[in-house]
Amino acid sequence: MSLRLGSIVETLGGELCGDADRVIDGLRPLEIAQGTHISFLSHPKYQQQLAQSLAGCVIVSSQFKVQACERGDCIVTDPPYVYFARLTQLWKKHLPAIASDRIHSSAVIDATAKIAPTARIGALCVIEAGAVIGADTVLKPRVTVGENCRIGDRCLLHSGVVIGADGFGFAPHDGVWEKIEHLGSVRIGNDVEIGANTCIDRGALQDTVLEDGVKLDNLIQIAHNVHIGQHSALAGCAGVAGSAHIGDHCTVGGGAIVLGHLELADNVHISAASVVTRSIRKAGHYTGLFPIDENAVWEKNAASVKQLASLRDRIRALESQMAQSLNSPHHRHGLPSHPE
User: In angstroms, rounded to a whole number, what is the distance separating the alpha carbons of residues 292 and 165?
Assistant: First the structure.
């Protein structure tokens, strides 16, 4: 398929510098784009690639308008990355539609489940009793939605997602584990996207909740009773333990862990591979990880870390001795502490 630059700007806006009749037949990164492709520059550190790119058109911010116009055709807009995202949506709308049943014949849907007329259910999906699937929501193949779980409108659940499995709840008693039945469900708002093989457990007594606009990557574990605020996003392999509460507009980097019963305020951003061990009540960017190093150096540093508690106690003891010495009568009068 192809689109004219003029048609793109008429639909998405932006300022076109160049030939409105140039035909674009693909979207590519700057470094590999050719004359029939459109690309984008979203970060100043890639501006050298802008000058060298063979792209037919580049989407840039007003900051790089002069350089981009000197190079060739460009669309000037702020922010360019959002414009590019909207261009991908426009492009997909123009791709040839693939004919398929709205509900695949292999899907297993309980008679008491409620599926909106515009929802789409992929192959081998399972939707259990009392579940609700909202309008224009898409379940890719092999998605499982447990009993009484609710998914809002315009959501996208990728292959292998499991909504509403029991949480990991057991009470220890006489050396064995007594199962805690999970009587809550999962409530998912509108415009939520959940990546492949991500699992969201049902609540024990209250529901696990994902508010509107939440975005989850692949292979994420959301435990029972977790609450994730609107428009927060978690990257791949992140894990959120039971009853944690994540605020609005938060981000959690790949492989990061949020421990149970903690709270993250709105606009908290956690770096990849960090472990959140305390509640964070102030917006900001937080990191908690041990830097990578050569193994021999790392082992020495790790051994030192093990001694921190004893070193702290020794320092406190020395500080106490120094304070006692400074407060002694001999010291106050300028006399030696141990006169001969």
Answer: 36
CA distances from 118 to 162, 251, 257, 276 (A): 21, 31, 36, 40
| DSSP label at residue 249 | T
Q: Which residue do the tokens 């992140």 mark?
A: 238
338 pLDDT more than 60: no
Cα separation, 41 vs 157, in Å, equals 30
Structure tokens at 192: 């939520």
Per-residue pLDDT tens for 63-98? Answer: 999 999 999 999 999 999 999 999 999 999 999 887
114: Cβ–Cβ under 8 A, 6 or more apart, which residues? 131, 132, 133
Domain 108-286 sits in CATH 2.160.10.10:
yes
pLDDT of residue 339: 47
Q: Which residues lie below 8 Å from residue 93, measured CB to CB, with a gap of 6+?
A: none
For the chain, domain boundaries: 3-94, 108-286, 295-332
**Out of 224, 227, 245, 269, which one is annotated catalytic?**
224
Element (H, E) at 251: strand 251-252
188 backbone dihedrals φ, ψ, rounded to 5°: -115, 130
CATH superfamily of 3-94: MurE/MurF, N-terminal domain (3.40.1390.10)
Tell me, yes or no, if 224 is annotated catalytic: yes
CB-CB contact of 60 with 42 (8 Å): no
117-150: pLDDT as tens digits: 999 999 999 999 999 999 999 999 999 999 999 9
